[in-house]
Amino acid sequence: MTRALAVARYVASDAWRSQRVLIPAALQLGVLAVLFGGDPGALPAPWGASVLALYPVAAWLALTLAQTEDPVQRSVTVAAAGGPGPVAAGTLVVAVAADVLLSTLSVAWPLVATPYGASPATVLTGLLAHLAAGLAGTAVGFGCALLPRIGWSLAAGVIVVLATAVQPWLPPVGAAVAALETGSGSLIVPVGVALLLVAAGTAALARRS
Amino acid sequence: MLRVEGVHQRYRNGPPVLDGVDLACDPGLPVVLGGENGSGKSTLLRIAAGAARPAAGQVRRPGVVGYLPDRFPARLRMPPDVYLRHLAAIRGVSPAPELLDRLGFSGPRREPMSRLSKGNAQKVGLAQALGGDPGLVVLDEPWAGLDAEAAETLLGLLAEVAERASLLVTDHTGRAARIAGARHLRLAGGLLRESPPGAGDTVGPGTDADLAEPGAVTAPLPATAIVLRCPDPEAVARRLGVSGRCAGDRLHLHVPATRADALLLAALQLGCAVESVGPV
Fold first, then answer.
1. Per its record, what are the GO molecular function terms (chain B) (predicted)?
2. Would you call A75 an interface residue with chain B, using a CB distance cutoff of 8 Å?
3. How far is A155 from chain B (nearest CA, A)?
4. What ipTM was estimated for this complex?
């Protein structure tokens, strides 16, 4: 665990220096600015759009984080950490921290920038919906990182995100968006499925050669 | 202590690179690994260091491992000091930036490593692998890109490290022949064999011109006859990685003259007495 946290600090520092993680983060901020700049309507329905945006953004972020190191550099890190497990776990910590940060920003933005308020229960619903999408995106990004070429990673990521985001019955993202838009439905299932997906994605990342 | 047992590895559609490799490496008994280009040395080192998983077989290694890949990445974004700090934290040890000074590192320490020369980048790679008292040190071509002075320093550093850690090294510059008490193994056809240096392994065509002795390849090496007295001559011959004639408590050896000093030192460390040394 200590090693995973040390890896997390290392990955965060390296990713910050590479600055490639800034592009997806800036994209999410751009979506939020456009979405909540005018009159989006009463919450929680407008959060559906920011949840949908966060899904590919989180996938892009996770893919970038997983590929921050080149394979030789990673082999040194893996040997130092005592195996690929702590390295995957450290990458996960950074990706989840980014998900939490972007989710909090997405939920807080309309509360600050628009006249519409929300009850604590509605805020919690919005936060859980964003987290479900963020974690699912992280899982997709880690899965795409296993592909040998960045072009294939990109194609697979786009196809998976497009196919899974628009099914209102499908947890985690489709169901989370539907729950926000209809104002009914629990977010326990989407969050639970997202957690399972991100655990599987991290385990797959730890098997990467 | 490092134990590699029955390790197999193959790449897609190719013949096996490692075909049941067993290797033991302990503190005080460093192992120098030889073999042709593409024989699988780097693959075996990656597996020994824990940077890659074997297709089959077992590896047991200590908790703290120092690993230097054959081409230490030159395009890292971090400055050397920051990189060394992070790698030490990942190992759970304290960083050892003074190793950079010992190796004669002359680049900027607070600017990205991508601005470093190859030799200076290699010194950062060595400092991260050797620092923090690792239990196992795995170095793939550690002399690559080093100047003569740093190469000598590295030999001294390796002698210090080998006392406390298992040391596994590949080398084609011939310098590893001077690591005292080392076992020399050769990887060929996916299997490891004993291979004393001087038998056309560590010194051969295509080695670094500054180190290979002129004529070492074509002319037969001058040989030295050594007689040792030891409690168990056969075990000593095995541990030294040489073949010799055992008679009672005496071990008669013929070794290349360039190897004699290192071998005598190793024999003394193993508790043998030297009875005679002379030309063959």
1. ATP binding
2. yes
3. 24
4. 0.87
